[in-house]
Amino acid sequence: MELYLNKDTQLCMSLAARPGNFGTRFHNFLYRELGLNFIYKAFTTTDLPSAIGGVRALGIRGCAISMPFKERCIEHLNELDASAKGILSVNTIVNTDGYLKGYNTDYTAVSKLIRSSGISAHASFTLRGSGGMAKAVACALRDAGFADGLIVARNETTGQALARQYGFRWKREPAESACELLVNVTPLGMAGGAQANELPFSEDLVRSAQFVFDVVALPAETPLIRLANSLGKSTVTGADVIVLQAIEQFVLYTGVRPSAELVDKAATFARS
Q1: Per the residue annotation, which of 70, 101, 233, 265 is the catalytic one?
Q2: Does the annotation mark 265 as catalytic?
Q3: For domain 10-104+241-271, which CATH number applies: 3.40.50.10860, 3.40.50.970, 2.60.40.10, 3.40.718.10?
Q4: Which end of the chain has less neighbouring CB within 10 Å, N or C?
Q5: Cα–Cα distance, 40 to 165 (Å, whole number)
């Protein structure tokens, strides 16, 4: 269905340090297929307060938030949903007549993937990273019943704080002792970055693990996931996360939940 912009078209957007095309293509595909009078555009900014003020002042319906704005945006919002309040990290803003409410659909997506993966809550895990997304993953693991966890972060302040918040341990570098679940929540392996070819965990650690979870969405098969697949490990990918969290954002913005078949088509289009 072909759509034309008019005065009633509702704008949704994203804010990221390094904007990508996935969200723009994913949302706009669904708007077109469902005949919704919306348009989606990705932005970056060096003036976050003004950008959030613009969301409110211009009546922008929704705004996806990525690194490094997930925590810094909170002071500019009116309310936090329970999904964001527990971790003090926001990846989605919904604007209702100038009232800005923050959500965290990363948490929602990761929780669903953990539940569907078959990973036992008794498994030991190592999570590398301590930023906003790491908070969402650590909280989802804690809420799913995981207790034997190690947070690995070179930033001692944020790493220890994250570990204390959810009752896990902290180390600056990965321990070489085996654990059952490895989780990467750093930019290591991200396409286009300076560390695109780097592994967040040693091959020995990957070999000894049962499950490997990499939240990096691009490429769909990161160096870590490629190694884990070659070793026959069960994996959860950032490509899985990005689709689940994006569809929850779409529902928050539009009030419409597309069919699973249409979501698959949108995700395929967005990656092409």
Answers
A1: 70
A2: no
A3: 3.40.50.10860
A4: C
A5: 35
